[in-house]
Specification:
The structure is a homodimer.
Chain A (H helix, E strand, L loop, with lengths): L5 H13 L2 H8 L3 H15 L4 E4 L2 E4 L1 H26 L6 E7 L4 H15 L3 E7 L2 H9 L5 E5 L7 E16 L10 H6 L2 E4 L4 H9 L12 E2 L2 H9 L4 E5 H9 L3 E5 L6 E9 L5 H15 L1
Parallel strand pairs in A: 3-4, 3-5, 7-8, 7-9
Antiparallel strand pairs in A: 1-2, 5-11, 6-9, 6-10, 6-11
Helix pairs in contact in A: 1-2, 1-3, 1-4, 2-3, 5-11
Chain B binds a DNA duplex through helix 3.
DNA sequence: TTACATTGATAAGATTTTCTGATGATAAAC
DNA sequence: GTTTATCATCAGAAAATCTTATCAATGTAA
């Protein structure tokens, strides 16, 4: 019966991920010496070296690599015990870690949080904003409880629940406000500003225009929808916006908004979570609340 | 990230098994209040009741039942991490928990321990002596590292390695010392003294005599081979002994020893362990040492 | 080469956690 | 009604863990 602690495992995991004592300590919200000591304790308890400390870098030994995977599995199982206990109480309380794609988060989350704060004071929502593949990964690893993204996620281990549909609209410089709405083909000839690689909204827009990512075009990549709209307003090109972003992003920017004729391009935003999550019932409740807020 | 500790899990497991705060505390080598407090901490951290404390008994709530299984799985995984780290060092050191059946343990283990003590000072062998089904169970649960028992164990998840064969010999009162060796059939008409239900040696002896356990006979059950031999010496009946027990058990007892004609009844004693054990290499080394000692 | 910056280890003292032993409360058993 | 068994609570002691300050080693830039 070896004398290790979960605390050591958590620190170990952090150090394995960051490869840096200082940053790992930050991630664990402790001082660097405290982390150093616990890592040392762990290595002593196991009787082996887990990390190779070279002058400028810290990385796992082969054995450490192996153990890191197991430790992660254990931490997941422990957290699941917490979830399971929490799920015993059917009410919607406690902490939920929700991942949201960047083209949804800024427009949806504030409203959701506002709505929840009133009715569910014991609810503690932590939002992580990043692109779909990362969300799926962290969800599967058990580092997130749920994610809000464009459906379908098409992951066998995940449950999906649709929240709402949103159309895409065209954003042009005001100088072109009275020009006719371009066809898909017309759009392809314009200078289309899009989010950088990795964002699903980029792919959705390209797909609408029937553009292969393979054939590179003269497009500027922006890191946020806000940036794109600013660029449109100074006449650099045109862009698409999901409906939900419209109000916020065009409020102060001087641009023209045009809707496409039907069938309008659109996407379905939904919530996903691990099928195996003990919190399924709570997550479904949460999805319903978000759905109500979005409507 | 819920704030529970492995210590709490170990205490929880002990309490779940014993259903008694005092005994669980003993098992964990701490005082009863310490255990009470940690269980309370755990229940608080999880926000639920894990045990129902009625006046005269402590038992798991339905949720506790569920969590207990998971906690055991986690503890197993943690211990396996220890094993894995230890296995990194190919040498035969550290603690091994070995289960041995009662008809082998007293005759084999002292010799083995003596042999090991000299050559492997850093080896820490803990012996658990009980019947085969319990050994198999504890082995599978990860509460033992290996077991020494009569082959075949016939468990899909276990590796087997034969250690030695031993014949069975007949023990009779000295008054019958010059009587001819009875046939199997003759044996069936005698008053055969055997170990109580559960011991594999009992079944092996019955099997040799072609006696179904179904048809009950007038046999006295003893709890140790030593008891059986004592009973033979005062003329109550006859018994069989595995060869290895012969020297010890007939040293002081006044009984006659007779060997059966070939093919003599016999059994194969071997060592088994989980196929998945990280310590496989060490366990094989250990088996070889035991084999050498027994020879 | 020297000064400097970065990074992990170490040390000392403070804080927090955990444990023990004594005692209390409750309910069953005699 | 007293005794017994059992778990909870309390106070103080012991152990662990943490923080701040500092050191040592290594690489980088002047």
């Amino acid at each position: 019966m070896i004398n290790v602690t979960l605390k050591q495992f958590r620190y170990f995991d952090a150090l394995a991920r960051t490869g840096h004592f200082g940053r790992a300590a930050d991630a664990c919200a402790i001082s660097q010496p405290a982390l150093s000591m616990q890592i040392k304790e762990l290595e002593d308890a196991l009787g082996t070296q887990l990390f190779e400390r070279s002058a400028r870098s810290v990385h796992l030994t082969p054995l450490g690599e192996d153990l890191a995977a197991r430790v992660r599995e254990i931490l997941r199982a422990v957290d699941e015990i917490g979830d399971l206990a929490r799920a015993d109480d059917e009410r919607l309380v406690g902490r939920f870690r929700i991942g949201v794609i960047p083209t949804v988060a800024p427009y949806l989350i504030p409203r959701v949080m506002q709505g929840l704060a009133a009715d569910h004071p014991d609810l503690d929502i932590y939002i992580r904003e990043t692109v779909t593949p990362k969300l799926i990964g962290e969800l599967s690893e058990g580092r997130l409880d749920a994610a809000i993204l464009a459906l379908p996620a098409s992951e066998p281990g995940l449950s999906e629940e649709a929240l709402f549909d949103e159309d895409f609209v065209l954003i042009r410089p005001t100088t072109e406000a009275s020009a006719p709405v371009p066809s898909k083909e017309g759009l392809r000839t314009m200078r289309l500003l899009l989010l950088e690689e990795g964002h699903c909204f980029r792919d959705q827009a390209l797909s609408f225009c029937d553009i292969r990512t393979a054939q590179p075009r003269e497009m500027l990549d922006g890191s946020s929808l806000s940036t794109l709209v600013q660029m449109v307003s100074v006449g650099i090109g045109v862009t698409l916006l999901p409906e939900m972003a419209l109000a916020v992003e065009t409020r102060s920017a001087d641009v023209a908004v045009q809707r496409f004729p039907k069938p309008q391009p659109s996407r379905t935003i939904g919530m996903v979570w691990r099928k195996s999550s003990p919190l399924t019932s709570q997550l479904r409740q949460l999805a319903d609340l978000v759905k109500a807020t979005a409507a």
